[in-house]
Amino acid sequence: MNKTDLAIYIHNEEQLRRAESLLDRIEQERNYAGMVELAGILEELHNDNLEEEICALYTEAADEGKVPEAMVRLALIYRDKRISKNSAEKSFRYAYEAAHLGNTEAEFVLAETFQACHNTLALYWMKHAANKGHVEAARGVAELYDEMKKHELAETFYRKALELGDESAAKKVTWLGKLFRILKYS
């Protein structure tokens, strides 16, 4: 990708200047954070013609720079778009590596990956993300505990989700409170 290519795809003048600046930094010093930012700008354009370039930027930042944000983006791209025959394996590898680097979003992505086949591992990673303040993870943990009929633990995580800003968790907290009162007097 060069500045001419950027000008073809990016029509917002401010965004184009930012992308050109990032491209200069990348070319001069292999700036991995710049690669992630430029890939993000290109992703926002929602242009399928840029997918290969986006993946190349994220892949270099992930594989050579060990940038967790790039790993998470690749995990999501491979999971959601299935762009290669081994997309599932690549998605898992990038999410797993970023999760082990402590990235909260990666922990949540990994939990979602496991949810279809292994609730124990899903719960493990989702709790990691929830305990670091990930709203969707807190709600996910609550829902998993609810499915397991562990209502007191479910209530704890619904409350956590509510504290983190998930207003829909309020209904569940209220409902579980009523359930506990009914069970107490039965």
Describe it for me?
With 186 residues, the protein is mainly alpha-helical. It has 2 domains: 1-101; 105-186, Alpha Horseshoe (Serine Threonine Protein Phosphatase 5, Tetratricopeptide repeat). The protein has 11 helices and no strands. It has helices at residues 3-9, 13-29, 32-44, 51-63, 68-81, 87-100, 104-115, 119-131, 135-147, 151-163, 169-184. Helix 2 (13-29) packs antiparallel against helix 3 (32-44) and helix 4 crosses helix 5 (68-81). The longest helix has 17 residues, at 13-29. The N and C termini lie far apart (69 Å).
Distance between the termini: 69 Å
Question: How many β strands by DSSP?
Answer: 0
Rg from Cα? 21 Å
H/E series, N to C?
HHHHHHHHHHH
Shape: elongated
Please describe the topology of this protein.
Layout (H helix, E strand, L loop, with lengths): L2 H7 L3 H17 L2 H13 L6 H13 L4 H14 L5 H14 L3 H12 L3 H13 L3 H13 L3 H13 L5 H16 L2
Helix pairs in contact: 2-3, 3-4, 4-5, 5-6, 6-7, 7-8, 8-9, 9-10, 10-11
Give a concise summary.
The chain is mainly alpha-helical and 186 residues long. It has helices spanning 3-9, 13-29, 32-44, 51-63, 68-81, 87-100, 104-115, 119-131, 135-147, 151-163, 169-184. 78% of the residues lie in helices and 0% in strands.
